[in-house]
Write a sequence for this structure.
């Protein structure tokens, strides 16, 4: 005959089971949200938005155009920079090529004219000097003839120097200065080309467009966020680790991430970052048991969760923490 356990025995067994369950320690947990790395694309210039090529939530590839700012002013500045480069290049070529043949011929003609004037002035002085010695002309006339001869000789020397300068060409220092001016203009053109190119806002990485704060026709100030993107192959859990758990958690530790309010979706993950400084209340403002209220920001990289949207609540369990 089989004897059934008494009600008192059943109660004793149930109490023992509850006691054992109470002895099993629950895994340490931290709460947070599911996040992706964010990229903010600032406005390169205070220009009006003339086209928006994407929608919020849309996935885009690297290099895809997101929106376009007005190009009128940027194109004009780019054209001015290109013209300045062309002007500096022609000025450098002019120095390197030297004087034109017509300019050299003109300088040679000026030298010939100065030499003729010098010969005439010398001949006149030679005729007048004996007459002055015979006191047939005044000494003042002789002095003026001598001065005119010296002035004519000076004109010959100046014309000869001008012709030599044309033959010798530009000085090396002038060529170097022109070369430096050309390089500066080219650098300015490169900077302006980069600035004008940024008027077409493109995605620097593949990802999802999270936010477009401005609308078509808006004119955002310089530096204002034109688009915010979520990038990265896998999301991560951004959590706040309570102070009692902080000492047992290190970068690289394994964890289990329970996503959603019900926690039905479970993923494996690893701690990729944990802050050394507590968030919210500074540590020196708390003493005793109050220090347990401290919270440390941490990030846990998920595995195989690329299809999840950002912002979902989650819990992270650290099985290794005791």
């Amino acid at each position: 005959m089989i004897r059934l356990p008494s009600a008192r025995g059943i109660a004793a067994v149930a109490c023992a089971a509850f006691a054992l369950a109470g002895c099993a320690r629950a895994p340490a947990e931290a709460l947070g949200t599911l996040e992706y790395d964010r990229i903010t694309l600032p406005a390169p210039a205070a220009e009006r938005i003339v086209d928006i090529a994407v929608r919020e939530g849309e996935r885009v590839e690297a290099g895809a155009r997101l929106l376009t700012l007005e190009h009128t002013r940027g194109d004009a500045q780019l054209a001015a920079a290109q013209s300045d480069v062309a002007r500096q290049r022609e000025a450098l070529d002019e120095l390197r090529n030297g004087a034109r043949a017509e300019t050299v011929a003109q300088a040679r003609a000026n030298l010939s004219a100065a030499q003729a004037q010098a010969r005439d002035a010398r001949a006149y002085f030679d005729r007048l000097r004996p007459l002055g010695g015979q006191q047939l002309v005044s000494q003042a006339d002789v002095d003026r003839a001598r001065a005119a001869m010296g002035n004519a000789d000076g004109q010959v020397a100046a014309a000869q120097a001008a012709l030599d300068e044309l033959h010798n060409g530009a000085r090396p220092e002038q060529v170097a200065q022109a070369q430096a001016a050309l390089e500066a203009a080219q650098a300015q053109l490169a900077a302006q080309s980069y600035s004008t190119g940024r008027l077409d806002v493109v995605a620097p990485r593949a990802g999802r467009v999270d936010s477009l704060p401005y609308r078509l026709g808006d004119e955002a100030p310089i530096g204002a966020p034109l688009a915010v993107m979520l990038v990265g192959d896998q999301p991560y859990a951004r959590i706040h680790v309570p102070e009692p758990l902080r000492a047992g958690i290190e970068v690289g530790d394994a964890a289990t991430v329970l996503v959603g309010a019900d926690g039905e979706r479970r993923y494996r993950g690893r701690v990729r970052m944990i802050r050394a400084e507590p968030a919210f209340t500074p540590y020196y403002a708390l003493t005793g048991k109050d220090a347990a209220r401290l919270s440390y920001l941490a990030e846990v990289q998920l595995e195989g969760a690329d299809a999840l949207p950002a912002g979902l609540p989650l819990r992270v369990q650290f099985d290794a923490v005791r």
User: Anything to note?
Assistant: Confidence is low (pLDDT under 50) at residues 1-24. The CA atoms of residues 276 and 296 lie 7 Å apart. DSSP finds six helices and eleven strands in the chain. Helices lie at 7-23, 72-97, 101-133, 139-168, 172-197, 243-246.
